[in-house]
Known about the structure:
Layout: E1 8-12, E2 23-27, E3 30-36, E4 42-46, E5 60-62, E6 65-67, E7 74-75, E8 81-83, E9 99-105, E10 108-112, E11 135-137, E12 140-144, H1 148-156, H2 161-164, E13 177-183, E14 186-196, H3 200-205, E15 214-223, E16 227-236, E17 245-257, E18 260-270, H4 277-307, H5 324-343
Antiparallel strand pairs: 1-10, 2-3, 3-4, 4-9, 5-6, 6-7, 7-8, 9-10, 11-18, 12-18, 13-14, 14-15, 15-16, 16-17, 17-18
Helix pairs in contact: 1-5
Pfam family, one: VanA_C
Protein name: Vanillate monooxygenase
Organism: Sphingobium chungbukense
Amino acid sequence: MRALRNIWYMAAxxxxxxxxxxxxxxxxxxxxxxxxxxxxxxxxxxxxCPHRFAPLHIGQQVGNxxxxxxxxxxxxxxxxxxxxxxxxGAIPKAARVPAFATxxxxxxxxxxxxDPERADPAAVPDFPVLExxxxxxxxxxxxxxxxxxxESDNIMDLSHIEFLHPLFSxxxxxxxKTSSSQEGDVxxxxxxxxxxxxxxxxxxxxxxxxxxxxxxxxxxxxxxxALIELYSGATPTGRPRExxxxxxxxxxxxxxxxxxxxxxxxxxCPRSMGEGAQRRADEQTEAVRSPFLKEDLPVIEAQxxxxxxxxxxxxxxxxxxxxxxxxxxRQVLARMIAAEEARN
Length: 344
């Protein structure tokens, strides 16, 4: 699969990788096996045994090694075979699987799909709304049968919420002022909606009195490969933004294959709200799951089915004002991939 390799991808929420259990996930076309060693540190190795190509994740963990279920070869965290129960026990030189660098930050497991020697944990992007001391974060996951850039486009252009999510919005969305900008390889896509009527659950999220006309903002910040922060907020119409309340969220898309994506999402609530912050974050994260699942996904997956194997840009899509931010993100990503391929 054509994708960036020397960059950090979100691989999992930490609770997905349990002590003593093997966890498998496909990332940019490669089958990866995750496990925790006896000290709880997470490791990632290739999931295909080099002997008869059985998946290692159907085997078992033995100490700090993974034992293949088929013929008992054991592989360590560095990918090398460390035990052969067959014959005289000699280990073939080629008996190894790839090893991938991992790190944990912001309550997220990250994986570096390129050269492990280049994997610097300090290169994980900054996400202030994921700082555990400052924010409680809900954890959500969905599998999407579509290319990951279609998912990025969906968040970067939120003009669709008027039509896909009628409970979220009104015709005020189409009257919103849009803008996009770029800071290095970071892309912003912003929409400001004035004098909107919000549903009761959004009034509750933004601490607005029932029936209060509102000014809303939807500010999306994109970073490669497909990591988006969405700053959604509102204030009574005409009041300064700093008087309003914001409900930030994260939307991280990790390509599984050319046509499937891991979608990790979470709502973020400031811990300054007190003991109820985590409960509120979990409730809001669960609340957005249904519209994602029942409204966004059917359209995006149908979109992918219509595109088929064609390159998206080769189909010459028409462009609307809201596409500016997503278009910039696509250009940045394409440039980064081309530059990496040229170096290799």
